[in-house]
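Entry:
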Amino acid sequence: MSIQMFGLPVSRGVAIGRAVLVASSRVDVAHYYVEPSTVEAEIDRIRNARDTVAAELSALKRDLPAEAPHELAALLDVHLMLLHDATLADAIKHWIESRHYNAEWALSAQTEVLARQFDEMEDEYLRERKADIEQVAERMLRALAKDGPPSPLAAGGAARDFGGEDPLVLVANDIAPADMLQFKGSVFTGFVTDVGGKTSHTAIVARSMDIPAVVGAREASRLVRQDDWLIIDGDAGVVLVNPSPIVLEEYRFRQRQSELERARLDRLRHRPSVTLDGQAVELLANIELPGDSASALAAGAVGVGLFRTEFLFMNRGGELPDEDEQFEAYRRAVEAMNGLPVTIRTVDIGADKPLDRLTAHELKHEHALNPALGLRAIRWSLSEPAMFRQQLRAILRASAYGKVRLLVPMVAHRSEVRMTLEALTRAKQQLTDTGQPFNDVEVGAMIEIPAAALTMPALLKDFDFFSIGTNDLIQYTLAIDRADEAVAHLYDPWHPAVLRLIADVIAAGRSAGKPVSVCGEMAGDTEFTELLLAMGLRSFSMHPAQLPAVKQRILRADAARLEQNLGTALDSEQPAQGWRAMLDR
């Protein structure tokens, strides 16, 4: 049966493939592919987990007090029976052998299949047995977690494509950004989630992967079944389940047209980015991992405007990377850029990018009502001074291998600025005392809180450059949780207050001779290219996949004419309509 669902389009294009469901669980589940040579070892992990859980359940049953209800013993018998069910074991083994899923993923995938089957049973008693399956699966997942190997991301490896001949698309209630990074370069051609907003970090990573994506589709993970054929329309925010052959062919035609357009834009990658009236514009890349430097260069970026270091801290079983490991990652990124500048942001942990294991401070704030307003970004770094100095030393050491700039996220208070600069001074002194080489680095502030935008004159004294994080700036200006689809319709980059803050920050930087870039999603959205040029922005940083389209708009723009018409947007009650009308004239 064909089904049509609607969500938020967050990454453009069309994806067609078979559905792979990532089941939600109270236990974190690692999702990655295993090498063919380790398939048997992965099957052994499942067997060992089954035996471990069986021993636990048998011990529980043996130690039941005499007065315990007989239903409790019967329940343990049911769970033991499920553990040793040959059909369940064979199905999990099939996922590992045919799709090369790791043991945890194979178990959760089969649990999802069985849960759907139980949901459709007419007998209420049988429907309720779904809980038994889920409880057994969770016990096995916990057993796997105790002795499981680190994920490929933590080990520095890449996800591998063993998905078979059919393209695959990912379907989930939500996908952690770290899991999204594990899927880079893998078989997935698109994804759809039940929750999320246009600028949630999961959506941002999807755009960096340059694959079509729809978020906030509400019931997708419940309505879609494993191996259903899906069309994901990342332009319209539409998901089609088991479409008719005619519709399938129409979307395949659209895919081919999109590929031709990408090939045409790709020819612009080596052209200098200069407007019609001769204004040079710097196009930089945002990256998450050192290996992304190659795609930045391939797209024609003239440097890295944002290296999100927090992804080095994720999917590690709670163990933080030490100084040497961080240094090696930063050095690889710097050397790969062949002398072009690399802007490294200090770790931006918190909100929708949590660590696997909570620190003492995070334990205290684990149940914060709004983590976006809590202990995150530079606040978290300053609360963990030893970790922070490790990262600062690693970044400084990498500066000996190329041009490095240091970027501080979520700056708001003068006290934070003072403590950050003091920590940097101490890190430099420690390297000097141990004879380790480093170069002087420029220090910049991310402007993503209205308080920072409104106090630019004070910040200009302490920082060498500025980068506007439009995603958070919009979120905090409009009091909108950007990851919450319930209020996603209120997230408005065109809001007059947002545009005024951005324009004022750019003007303040230009007046003081301090470089200002935009590294948020607005930089890579061609709808805003001319507007940002009109505001005086001459440095854009975005995901490499977005560079060609933005460059095309810059090459066709007359910056002087645009600046003359800036008031059309800033003074209008409906800036979007007024600006678009001006462009159409």
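The chain has 27 helices and 16 strands.
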